[in-house]
Amino acid sequence: MIPLRDDNPTRGIPVVTIALIVLSAAVYLWQLSLPAESAQAAVYLLGFMPALLFGYATFDGAQWVPPGATIFTSMFLHGGFLHLAGNMLYLWIFGDNVEDRVGHGRFVVFYLVCGAVAALAQALSDTRSTIPMIGASGAVSGILGAYVVLYPRANVLVVVPLLIVFYTVRVPALVVLGLWFGGQLLSSLAVESGAGGVAFLAHVGGFIAGVVLIRWFLRERRRARS
User: Fold this and answer.
1) CA–CA distance from 119 to each of 33, 136, 226 (Å)?
2) What is the architecture, at CATH level 2, of domain 2-225?
3) Could you give the 3-state DSSP secondary structure of residue 206?
4) How many CB atoms within 10 Å of residue 178?
């Protein structure tokens, strides 16, 4: 199922969600502007490499940022247009409502924390990996986890392919995102540890982080404590 939009209104403009999409798109355009060798170097220098963080590998030349910082810089790099478009589509559909509930500033922190947990979840499966991890999908997975906690009954308009015909139907978010998470979990179990490709464990880790942490970021909770 490919989500198109939800039926969940917001109370304001999701400025952070928009800014994250614009920034990710701008970084991708910067990647495209680089010569092939420089673009590859940028992935290794700004992508998250577990072996660097855990001290199993070093760079011969100068690093652009410390290994720990690459957990965050890697969230804004993407490996292709479809990689970028898929992540930004999910962020646009589900991020605005989460931002609306937690507030702009806390949404930034929530996004980055979920992305960091996602990256570490993938890294801990192979701390010696020298394959750079890039993409916003771990952080976006955290947004999906938060959304399913906050709005499980919200309707999501999705495209469902059936043979050569495509249908649009409205499905509860709990079903859409529950099936998505189940697919990521099963895929993470099927992929050999240390293999390249899609970082399914990052998706699983980010989603769980979103589910667990969202209650601590809600504005309603903050007001109740004050």
Assistant:
1) 26, 10, 33
2) Up-down Bundle (1.20)
3) helix
4) 13
